[in-house]
Amino acid sequence: MQREAGGGRIFPQVWRLDPFSLRSRLTIGIATVSSVGLGSIALWTGWQMQRILINSHKQGIEYIAGRLPHDVELYSEMMPVETGLSKAINNLTTADTLLWVKHSNGKITAKSGNLKTQSDRGTAAALMSLTQMPSQAQVSEVNGRFFVLRGSPLQVREKAIGQLFVARDISGDRQMFLAMVWNLGIVSLGVLLTVTVAIAFYLRRSLQPLRQLNLMTQLISAEDLGQARLNLERAPSEVKELAQTFNMLLSRLSQAWEREREFVSNVSHELRTPLTIVHGYLQSVLRRQHNLTETQQEALETAASEAERTIHLLQDLLDLARADSGYLQFRLDSFVLNDLVAEVVGMARQYSDRAIAIETETHPIVVKADYDRLKQVLLNLIDNAIKYSESDTSIQVKLDGNPTAATIQICDRGYGIPLQHQSRIFERFYRVDEARTRGTGGSGLGLSIVKTLVEGMGGSVTLRSKLGEGSVFTISLPV
């Protein structure tokens, strides 16, 4: 049966802001490009609108400056030139346009008669005090207001009668333009935020297959390599190719893992028998000590000890290989746990000559487990407690039971295990201190065997340790 992940149906949706994620980077990148694009369009639009607005006013000023001499000529045929000039100026004067004619001596000979619409007569006076103006219409600021200004010589019938000045107030139009640009900026910002949110949700949905790949890899263990497969139905083609490659990788890893387990099982099985024979011959020779010198006896004892340690190591490897393959058998029977604990503690006292105390309930605690396997587990944990604690400290074995589970605690007052190592202490061949492990003869498989056997009997094993205060291994078994 395959473990599959497809269509986003088995994995929960997780919204988590990560500034370094691909989704955040794409969102920020697209939002930045969009903001630059919208900003450029807004600036270009504003610049074009301002240019059109100013050009329209400039054209109006140029039209007035070109028409006034013609009107003065028409009026001068019926009335004096000064009267015709004033009448022509008043005809071309509007609410936002001011005209005046200044003689060469600096005296104003005619000007717009209707100045009531001008917001500030001081501003009008400041304009009329100007002596020079551009010959082409230009925008200038006078007293905090903006005007389009133009000055040109005024001739009537080829006779110069002064300098014509035209000023059009565009402050109101400019304020309206700035308000429009401000509103355009606000709308652009709103559009940008909306687009950014939409992009973020779209990318979140588009990257969901990659999140499924990530979650799937977190769930896969060594035991699942042969069954775990990815099936992404509605993913992009690139992600589907990645999933297929990932499935091929899982298949190769599964085959490699299976070959490794078979190799360990075969090697352990093949080496255990000859080593057992060698160990038996060494023990037989050692029993005839009167024929051996002291050096020979010491060498044979060392060889026999190492052979025995290697046999135990091979047995542990064989048990682990069988557990990985599902061939490790357990004979689960009901028995009194108090009796087993007392037997194991008695054996440990005999071979270690250490003080080992038992704290147990007065009533018998019955569990359903494999008697021999549980004995192996307890001997292993007590042996660890003896090895990694001082010889003058005691070891406690606490036994407790309740209606649902029985617990066994092996407590020592030894060196303790650092916090960063506690989560990996049950891994195979993992050693907290290589030098100390070599000195005590450990292989790094003991606790892994303990965990495998206890879980195989339906229980659990946990560790609580503190440096300098010791460690407590707790086994929980169903009653």
Automatic annotation (TrEMBL):
Name the enzyme group at the top EC level.
Answer: transferase
| UniProt name for this protein | histidine kinase
> Catalyzes what?
ATP + protein L-histidine = ADP + protein N-phospho-L-histidine
**What organism is the protein native to?**
Scytonema millei VB511283
| Highest taxon above the source species | Bacteria
Q: What is its EC number?
A: 2.7.13.3
Q: Where is the Histidine kinase domain?
A: 266-479
Q: Name one GO molecular function term.
A: phosphorelay sensor kinase activity
